[in-house]
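Technical note accompanying the year-one report. For the benefit of new consortium partners, we illustrate the data format agreed upon in the data management plan: each record pairs a sequence with a structure-token string. No post-processing was applied to the example shown here.
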Amino acid sequence: MTELMLNINLQILFLDYVLWIVSLLALVVLAWLIFFQHHQGKQLKGELTELAKIQKHNVEYEFVLRAMRLCVWHIDTKTMSLTFEQDFRDKVRDWTPTANIPNLIEGATVLEPHDRERLLKSMDDICQGRKSEYHEIYRVLTPYSAKPFFWEESYATVAERDVDGKPTLLVGTSMRIDERKAMEDALVLARNRAEESDRLKTAFIANMSHEIRTPLNAIVGFTSILPDVTDDTERKQLLDLVHENTQKLLRIIDDVVNIAKVEAGQDELVMSTFDLNTILSDMSARYFKDVAQGVNLTTSFASEMLSVTTDHNRLQEILKHLLSNATKFTTQGSITIGYDAPQGNRVRIWVRDTGKGIAEENHERVFERFFKVDEFIPGAGLGLSVCRTLAQSLGGEIGVDSKLGEGSCFWFEIPIQ
């Protein structure tokens, strides 16, 4: 009995020992599970945080691309295939070459021929590993005649390399730069105009000093010897010369002042309505005495009366210079002043002569300041420049039709209402 009880106690102790070990193991396993779950939770939380950062980065990345109007692309250097990804470039009438290009060399036909060879060489340099970066500005052709091309700027770099260090994948961006190129062209044009203005100013001062000095020297010279001249005929000749040079000096100064006022905007238009036939007839009568002997000064009007609304003084000034030129260069034949039938709200007024004419290469130059076809004919070379300035101020244009030895027809068109 005692032995049986001992065995039972031993079994009970063994079971208690086993239960204690199992409980201890269970506690260890439970603790490990709790620790593992905590670790996994922490790791998952970290991954979720990283995922949120990546998502935020992608949003920011796309926002930057959209804000800068960029296009992202990749090039496989083995196949030379071009793959476009996100593209936020401005469109040209909803068109832009964004389709994937299986072969870059064949796809380069969309580039302007002068830029194509340079761009392909630069791309080959980075694909072959001779350069690590790429930057080019080029023109992309479009199917529209109104805008045959647009300007684009691209950057690229190596994204992946093989075991030998050779580039296998390029990543790049492109953006439209039409506005920047337009600004650059405008700045270049402004610089050229400033340089031309400075050159013209220097030439203007040099020419003016010469043109003013010539009649002024005559005036000073002749007036200085007048007290010593006793012969009335000789005195009259000297006084006539002084008067002639005085008028010449005044005309030069008047022309310069007129140009300066109009270009500075200080001489405002004074609009009035009058009959064009009347003013042309008056100007013809005024210059009738100045034409050479044997030259006929006539008028030719498209209608018996034409009412126009413009600046009377500026119109008269233009006619004065055109008639003055015609009388200087016409020694035989005729001078005719008139106008054609109005077209819309514009009328072409002209002065036609049978003088020596103007070579075709000088048709534009005659309207430049101080340009003279014949240096032996009196004048400062400002009259036609004044005419152009005044015609443009009236909203019109001026030109000449002429052949050397066959006479000239100076015309200007202005609005009449």
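Partners are asked to follow this layout when depositing records. The first strand starts at residue 70 and ends at 76.
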